[in-house]
Design goal:
Structural class of chain B: alpha/beta
Number of helices of chain B: 19
Largest interface: A-B, 37 and 46 residues
Distance between the termini of chain A: 24 Å
Radius of gyration of chain B: 24 Å
Strand content of chain B: 5-15%
Oligomer: heterodimer
Helix content of chain B: 40-55%
Strand order of the largest sheet of chain B: 2-1-3-12-6
Radius of gyration of chain A: 24 Å
Largest sheet of chain B: 5 strands, mixed
Shape of chain B: globular
Number of strands of chain A: 2
Helix content of chain A: over 70%
Chain lengths: 298, 433
């Protein structure tokens, strides 16, 4: 299509571009602007240059919050992607072969169920499950004679984040599973048959055939869940209030500064840093993915 | 030709979008007959205040049949965290309940978000109803420090922190109500010995443990320290006797098992629920829980005592009615405040287990409620009102409550905890100079 002809269609972009400007670019620019000021939300912001960024750099809570985000990355991206892939292959191969398509659908729906629940609702339910005195988890441990493993799941600072991570694995798992199961439809069964004849093990088939063939889907899952892990807020806020070093995350830390303290300028600084990290993460991923695709096409 | 048409269509789309976004400002003004009075508060419906204020709403509807009342029930944390943002918007209610103290009411007042009620209060006689110790938390100066300056809020009740105890359990274990701090510790030790967690505590929420801590601090505090701490009038030594005693004693109590080993995993509502179910024998919390306990506790007899052997007690005038500067119906707001201060509403509140400031006390028969009001009166008479520890500076709740959670957890030593208080408090204080 020539440049001249394509220009005619450019006008269709105007509504989208306008909305993008108004809803994303302008507030983001304003946020960056505010991050250079000292401001409590009303009154006149006072320009302080890079002071907020310097403060963040030395702020123990700031580093603690990003460290916790990194841990959540394990629970929301790494474990669900690996587990989701193995489960998808297992359901697709074994369950469908032995019990039929219907059984697979039931399992798939079951694993996906948490995803259709509002995250806040899931978090409230898990708060009850983890309740130390009458929560079902401690009750269950007691019932099966494992009372020495009863814990103050969300109250104990050393354990709180791990408890939330456990819940997030449960919550996230269905998403990669469903995507990978759809992707598996694309894989030619003859490849597996050929591999079997050559004596390949189950795990070899997964790593040598499945993974390379559904790589685009894996990239999408990793990228979207990683972004989700970086900006996670609701489960932390609901399950532990997230005010302590043990469970605070970047978004919660930003919220705290915006609304509770209130140091709006500092809150904006953290929001800006968080957004920059997410954009960087996305860029790196897109770069790796494009390079990979190009290599495959050659 | 075609491009021209496309340009036209997209222009039309863009205009629609802009109009849609820039929104609702073109709405016609409301006329008198469809005035809407917006009211927000966060006292639970079954609390004494909730009951009294619902009654005030009914009275208000009779008084203003042409006005629609739009009531929204909020929760404490919601207003505590987003109050500033709400008050700074166009969507403010006409009257709302906010938490008193420098960190909230003071911050809003000094930011110009609240209506100065001094004039109205004089005209409507509110100043005759509110006693000086109650008024402390209603006045804020230009720095947002309470105690002096204009009147920005009106409270309709008093409140204080006490220990609720399960009389049946005390009797069962042959334990008497303590009259000194040593006796209080002996009571708790006796329950621990019997394998019972003596005190319920919802440290999963950030604020409840601040009351346990401050009650201990007050054992070693004097009026000067309290004034300096609350009104920022002088230096406060966080490593001095009072605060050190509070932090170390609380850590010691945790160590001795006074609160069990999972209080940081229990939220406030669950902690109270445990007391209502008759599990722990004691519950240190505020008078706002009294009304709820009257209706909820049916299986055992219960009573109250204030932490014994000290002059000062956590407590103050209640939360404030404020009229946002941006409120649209200020006259209606004043009428509503009038009603909540009126004898009818106040007596109703007293009978529901509240601490009224303008009730006809002869109409109260329940001995429990008389006991509650007598306890508050005794604190006021002794000049013992010491306010709440999270008030002095904005954001202090976070440092204090969050720090106490870590102290209870054992992740923070009393020394480190006091360091963090010192830093947050003096950071803000020096920013005022």
């Amino acid at each position: 299509m020539s440049y001249k002809r394509s220009r005619g269609y450019a006008v269709f972009l105007i509504p989208g571009v306008l909305a993008f400007l108004l809803i994303v670019i302008v507030p983001f620019a304003a946020n960056i602007g505010i991050s250079f000021t000292k401001w409590k939300g009303v009154g006149t912001p006072e320009w302080i240059g890079f002071d907020n960024y310097e403060k963040a750099f030395h702020d123990e809570l700031f580093w603690a919050s990003f460290q916790n985000n990194m841990q959540l990355l394990i629970a929301m991206t790494v474990i669900p992607t690996i587990l989701g892939l193995l489960l998808a292959v297992f359901l697709y191969d074994n369950i469908t072969h032995h019990f039929g398509q219907r059984a697979t659908s039931v399992f798939r729906a079951g694993f996906y169920l948490p995803q259709i629940m509002p995250l806040v609702v899931a978090a409230i339910v898990w708060r009850w499950i983890y309740q130390p005195n009458w929560g079902i988890l401690n009750w269950l441990l007691d019932a099966v004679g494992l009372e020495q493993y009863q814990r103050n799941w969300l109250g104990d600072g050393d354990l709180a984040l791990k408890s939330i991570m456990g819940m997030m694995v449960w919550f996230q798992l269905g998403y990669p599973l469903v995507i990978f199961m759809a992707a598996l439809q694309r894989v030619d069964p003859q490849l597996y048959e050929a591999a079997s004849i050559d004596g390949a093990s189950w795990i070899q088939k997964v790593t040598r055939i499945t993974v390379p063939l559904i790589r685009p889907e894996i990239y999408v899952v990793i990228l979207t869940t990683a972004i989700h892990a970086m900006k996670v807020f609701a489960p932390i806020y609901v399950m532990s209030r997230g005010t302590r070093r043990a469970t605070i995350v970047a978004a919660r830390f930003s919220y705290k500064n915006f609304f509770e303290v209130p140091q709006v300028g500092y809150g904006a600084t953290i929001a800006t840093l968080l957004t920059s990290i997410i954009i960087l993460l996305t860029a790196v991923f897109m770069f790796i993915q494009t390079r990979q695709e190009r290599r495959e096409n050659q | 030709m075609r491009t021209k048409l496309l340009k036209l269509v997209s222009l039309a789309l863009a205009i629609t979008l802009i109009v849609a976004i820039s929104g609702t400002s073109a709405q016609p003004r409301a006329y008198a007959q469809d005035r809407v009075f917006k009211l927000w508060y966060y006292e639970p419906a079954d609390s004494a205040m909730g009951i009294a204020w619902q009654n005030a709403v009914e009275q208000f509807k009779v008084m203003h049949p042409d006005v629609t009342v739009e009531f929204e029930e909020k929760v404490f944390e919601q207003i505590q965290e987003t109050g500033m943002m709400i008050l700074n918007s166009d969507e403010v209610p006409d009257v709302m309940e906010i938490n008193k103290g420098n960190a909230t009411a003071g911050l809003y007042a000094s930011s110009g978000l609240l209506t100065d009620l001094s004039q109205v209060a004089e005209e409507r006689g509110w100043l005759d109803i509110l006693s000086p110790s109650i008024l402390t938390t209603c006045r804020y100066n230009e720095n947002g420090i309470m105690g002096s300056g204009n009147l920005y809020g009106v409270t309709t009740y008093g409140e204080f922190v006490m220990v609720y105890y399960n009389k049946d359990m005390f009797e069962e274990y042959g334990i008497a109500v303590p009259t000194t701090f040593e006796e209080f510790e002996a009571v708790a030790d006796a329950f621990v010995e019997a394998g019972i967690v003596p005190l319920t505590l919802g440290a999963g929420d950030i604020w409840p443990a601040t009351h346990n801590f401050y009650e201990l601090v007050l054992y070693k505090a004097d009026r000067d320290l309290i004034s300096n701490f609350q009104f920022l009038t002088g230096d406060v030594d966080f490593h001095g006797e009072a605060f050190t005693f509070g932090a170390e004693k609380l850590a010691e109590e945790v160590e001795k098992g006074y609160y069990g080993d999972s209080s940081t995993g229990v939220i406030y509502a669950d902690s109270n629920a445990a007391f209502v179910q008759g599990i722990p024998p004691m519950n240190l919390t505020g008078s706002w829980a009294f009304g709820g306990f009257i209706s909820q506790i049916t299986d055992f007899d219960w009573g109250i005592f204030i932490m014994p052997g000290k002059q000062f007690n956590t407590g103050s005038g209640g939360n404030l009615w404020v009229v946002p500067e941006n409120a649209k119906n200020k006259d209606l707001a004043y009428d509503f405040i009038d009603l909540t201060l009126g004898t009818e509403s106040q007596t109703l509140m007293a009978n529901a287990g509240g601490i009224p400031i303008n009730a006809d006390l002869t109409q109260i028969e329940d001995p429990k409620i008389l006991e509650l009001n007598a306890a508050f009166a005794s604190i006021v008479e002794n000049d013992g009102i010491a306010f709440y520890p999270d008030w002095p500076v904005p954001g202090f709740m976070d440092v204090l409550g969050g720090g106490l959670q870590e102290l209870i957890d054992g992740n923070l030593s009393p020394e480190e905890f006091l360091d963090s208080l010192d830093e947050a408090y003096n950071d803000y204080k020096s920013s005022l100079e």
